[in-house]
Backbone:
């Protein structure tokens, strides 16, 4: 994927992230995402299905979608992984804050308030 295509996709508010079960079936989830460098980042509950599926297989695909997950673009194949190093997590959080601004700050506030912010996993996507 070239830089123009990455920038075009990054202008969307949501992507449908498809991760794959062991039997090969895709599970699609609409998610917030942000571009940092040549990678996209997504956050999720660490115990979520998508994080577990990525542990089994890094194969993913993404497409622009609406908040309900209705795909409105072409699927793009890629690789995903959970990142645990502080530098990658900081880069991802900064990108998400730049993109979603007040919405992300509100999500973070309520995650901190409920004690769930420490249960997040950051996912890195290479397309």
Residues:
């Amino acid at each position: 994927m070239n830089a123009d295509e990455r920038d075009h996709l990054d202008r969307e508010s949501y992507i449908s992230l498809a991760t794959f079960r062991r039997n090969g079936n895709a599970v699609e989830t609409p998610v917030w995402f942000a571009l940092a460098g040549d990678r996209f980042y997504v956050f999720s509950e660490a115990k979520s299905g998508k994080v577990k599926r990525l542990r089994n297989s890094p194969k993913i695909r993404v497409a622009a979608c609406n908040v309900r997950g209705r795909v409105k673009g072409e699927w793009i194949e890629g690789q995903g992984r959970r990142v645990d190093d502080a530098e990658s997590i900081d880069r991802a959080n900064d990108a998400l804050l730049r993109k979603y601004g007040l919405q992300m700050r509100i999500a973070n506030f309520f995650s901190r308030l409920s004690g769930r912010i420490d249960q997040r996993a950051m996912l890195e996507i290479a397309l």
About this structure: The helical segments are 3-10, 49-56, 86-114. The radius of gyration is 14 Å. The chain has one domain: 3-126.
